[in-house]
Structures are given as C-alpha cells and as structure tokens.
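agent> Task received from the user: take the single chain below, predict its 3D structure, and emit structure tokens. No templates, no multimer pairing.
agent> Plan: (1) validate residues, (2) run structure prediction, (3) serialize to tokens, (4) report one or two observations.
agent> Step 1 OK, no nonstandard residues flagged.
tool_call: predict_structure(input=
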Amino acid sequence: MKKMSGTISVTGMGILCAIGNNQTEVLTSLRNKASGIGRMKYLPSVHTDIPVGEIKLSTEEMKQMLGIPSEETVSRTSVMGAIAVREALQQAGINDVSGKRVALISGTTVGVMDVTEQVFEQTGIDPELQGMPHSHECGQSTLEIARYSGLQGARCCTICTACSSALNAIMIGSEMLKNDEVDLVVAGGSEPLSKLHLNGFNTLMILDRERCRPFDETRAGLNLGEGAAYVVLQKDVPCGLAYVRGYANRCDAFHQTATSKNGEGATLAMTGALRMAGLQPKDIQYINAHGTGTPDNDASESAAFKRVFGADLPDMSSTKSYTGHTTSAAGSVETVICLLAMENDFVPASLGWQHPMPDGVIPSPGRTGVKLDDVMCNSFGFGGNDSSLILSKSQPLADEQPLLDESRIHVAAQSTVSSEEELSGLREFLPPMETRRMSKMMKASLLSAFTALREAGIERPDAIIAATAKGMLELSTIFLEDIVNNQEQQLKPTVFMQSTHNTIASAIAIQTQCHGYNITYSQGDESAAWAVRDAKMLLRKGEARNVLVCAFDEALTEGRTSRFKAESTIYTLA
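)
tool_result: status=success, residues=574
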C-alpha cells in the first residue's frame, strides 16, 4: 500500500508589497510600525479618494529589474510574482532546477486582468475577445512567473479561491511533496490592483476611506492592496525557516460575500489545521488573523476565535493595516510576515486599533522579545473559502498516511449542461425567484451539479472541486464594459459578486450546505486534470467518501451571447 509521508520545510521566502520590495524592507516596516497605505499612484482610477496599499514600483521599473524588454507586454501580476519567486529561490540556495521535478503553485484572481483592462480601454472587446491576453485566463500569469523567475519547465498550477488562494497554494504544494509527485515546490500568490476588483469591492461598499482598523469598533471596511509572496517548500530538509505543520481548507457555505455570524467555516479551518499539526489551541503563540476591517469579517472571525481558543486567545493581529488587503496574495504575504516574526522574535502590531468591539477580541499592539514556536495564519475568501496554516520551528513527526488504491475510485454519476433550453430544468431544484439574477454559466453549473448528485443519491457532497480556464467570462466582460462606459460609477454589485472564478464552487457549497474542502483550479486546458487529481487524492487519503468535480467554461459569440458547458462528475470509493 502506497503511503504519503515526510515533513515539509520552508527553505526560502520572497515578498513584495506596500511596505517593502524584499524581506529586509518589509521587516523594517513591521518593526517601525510603518504602514504602506496611501494614495494610489500607478492605478489610473477615478477613485483617487480611496486609499490603497500599492507597491512602490511601476510595472516598467519591475520589468527592468527582471531584464524584460520595455516593448514586451507583461502583466503586473507576473512581474511582481517573478521578483518574489527569485528572492525565495535565492534564499533557499537554489540556482539551478534542471533535473528536478519542480512545481509552481500560484494563487491569483486578477491574473492578467490589468493587461486586459488596458487593451479594452484602447480598442474595445470584440465578441470573440480577439487580442485579449488569453481571454482573462489566470493561468497565463503563472506561466509568465515561471518564465521570468527561472522556473521554465516547472509544472504550473493556478488556484483561484479569491482571498484564500495563496494559502491554498501552499497547502496543495505541501501535499504534492508528501505524495512524492515533485522534488521542489514554489508556492504563494501574486495580485495587483486593478480597476475590476477596486470597483468591484467599491460596489459592495466595504472600502474604507481611511486606513483600515481591523477589530476596532469604528472599523468601516478594508483597504485594497497589492503584493506577491512565495515560499520554497522541500521535503525532509532540516534547518529550514520553519516547518509546515498543519493546514485545512473548509467552506463557510453561507453567502457569496458575507460571513456567518458564528464563523463556522473559520472555526472548521482552524480546528482542522490544529488537528493535522497535532497541537492544542494553547500551543499557538501568535495568530495572523484574516482581519480585513469589514464589520462582517471581524465579528465573524472573533466568534470563531472564541469557539476555538475560548478565553485564552494568544497574541493576535491583522497586518492588513500595513499592506492593505492583497486579496489572492494575502495568504502568502502574511505567511512570509509570520516567518519574519518567528525568525526575529516579535509580534506585529495591529495598527489603528483603539476601541474594543462588543463581544470582540483585542488584537496585539505589538511585542518584541517573544519566542514564537507555533504560529497560525488565516486566510478567508469570497464564498466562504476559509483556510488556516500552522508554521512551527520544531520538526513534527513524519507520520505516514496510507493511501487507498486508485482502482477503488469510480464515477458514480455525471451530468453535462450546454444549451439554454436545458436551463429550465433548474426549476426542479430552485425556485425562479432565486435564480432570476444568475448568469447562464451559474445556472448551467448548478443544474449539472444538482443532477449528478441526485443521480448518485447524494444530498450533500463531502468536497467540491471546480475547474475553469476562463472563469465567469461573460460577467467579467460585462463588468469591464460598465467600468469604461460608466467611468467607474454606478456599477452593479450583483455582476461583480458572480464574476470571480470560485463563484461556482462556492454557490454549490452554499446550496448544498457543504462545509468541506472547496478548491477552484484555473490552468487553461489542464484545469480539469488538476481538479480530478485532487479529488482522487482526497478519496485515497480517506478524507472524503465522495467528491463533486465541476468543470465549466464559456465563450462569447456574436451579439454578446455565450456558449457554455458545465460538466459535473461525482467520484466515490467502491
């Protein structure tokens, strides 16, 4: 019987964000309690009153740092990511990856959207999106990061679970190493500021016009930021920066943008990570909270902290008041901040906190001379995609996990929806009032999922995995058009809420009340293969009895109608 085993070490890290262009600068800013949030300089938005956490480099300056010709069009996502990956590889002492099985696992939602926005504003989008960089494909940015960081030939994988993407990338990379699929993993995320997500968050009315104040009674929202951070992961290598000791991904299954009052998803993620690490809540010395500064998130995360840690909450802070919310990169940006804190014996301060929340938790004002052996990092995304990671200085036991034989896995049911005529079948599962604002892609995906589940005799899946190359293409295009035509004013929040790549997996979880594992892969034509691989690993590890895999994509045709296809497959153990 095959087994998964080994300890995972972090042997290098790289970071680029509003408070520094490398580890040293970020550490100095954290120690000096210096925030990087201010007026935007490089994003050409009309919303100049909205403070952001912008990297203090132009895209052209970063291209020069990487030796990229000025005439070459490259996404800001890609150049930021490549700079951070180079720093991580340098610290790990890796100059040549030839002969090694290498994977680059990257989290992003914006992807190459910054380039798409520029082209669209100059030329407009034709029905087939000709001239668009791979039709918004997030996976393109990961390929570019590999190219410009010296990881040509690496297996590239892109995770799109909104604000938990980068933390999920680290989890997936760790699993690949334990299963001996690769020799070396570089995992993290990169996310630039873009008009699409700045305006999207603005429509939800959750952006603060001042510096954010996580866990403060006067909190009024978040500050968007941008950044990139990556860690080098290696198996059974001692004396790294820290060990990846525990992790878990769970779904709140409550709402596409809001969080549950009791923090169910966050609670499940933290307890799952502790269980995997073999630790008790009292063993954690510091938590880097998700802590966005929005009324919903901070209240929900506070409730989850109380459920997990009771009255004995360790030092906790949110560092988003330094960097802004770097969305899909947040998990890796804050993982690197945790590693810096562990290496330098300090607890980062929660800037701006003054007034306790009713029934809330109190973040740390910062402490020095603190030994941090076990640290938790939280990242929670739209749709309730919640993940927690535990880093430790002490080497965990290399427990072996037996894997069931793959021959025991079979397809219990499959359903495909690819025409508008079929969409009326959704009435069997949901009332028309509930579906009237859904896009055709959303309806098709829900119908295929519900039909497959019914055929398999399963009411609620144990896990949900989605695969898509282009994501919610029609809605993201509509939102881009509205941004230009309406000059970033009076935009529709319902369009933005359904435009993220992980919308489908989240919607299925919400409808079925599935609080289990929830991941979305977006790596072009390889997306479905990554999803199926993950589903089979969950089953072989015994962490699920059944897994729903939903593969979806669409294309725009003449007259702005969409061709779409959603295919849901139920994998179970025989």
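agent> Step 4: summary for the user.
Residues 127-134 have pLDDT under 50 and may be disordered.
agent> Done.
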